[in-house]
Amino acid sequence: MAVTAHPLPPTKDVWHLALSDTPVRSDDPWLRVKTSRRALYDAARAALPDGIDEMIFLNERQEVAEGAITSVFVERAGALITPPLESGCLPGVLRAQLLQSGRAREVVLAAEDLRNADRLFVGNALRGLVPAMLTG
Known about the structure:
Layout: E1 15-19, H1 39-46, E2 54-58, E3 64-67, E4 71-76, E5 79-82, H2 93-100, E6 104-106, H3 111-115, E7 119-124, E8 128-134
Parallel strand pairs: 1-2, 1-8, 5-6
Antiparallel strand pairs: 2-3, 4-5, 4-7, 7-8
């Protein structure tokens, strides 16, 4: 087995987000663990429209779940909120750290919450919190 390493490309100042037309199932047990079963997410990343940096997935109830490679965070009145695991998101490392530190809390989010956020972020353990805007 070969192991390779590559530097992470610089992160843009603001990521442009779009909503996927394909819902995730909030009761899918594979969404609770980091795994290589990522066909939906890999396909979304491979087909990102021009000018879009990340695809955001909603579940069957139209609740925000997660991005293809990120967790989603909305800032409201100075507090960060992120979807609960029951909405169908991965319990990512950055997400867990922000929840554990009290910097973020879980709230069910809808697409309108992304549009009406004081500030919007996506993030993961590699990139940290990245300012974002819903443009697609």
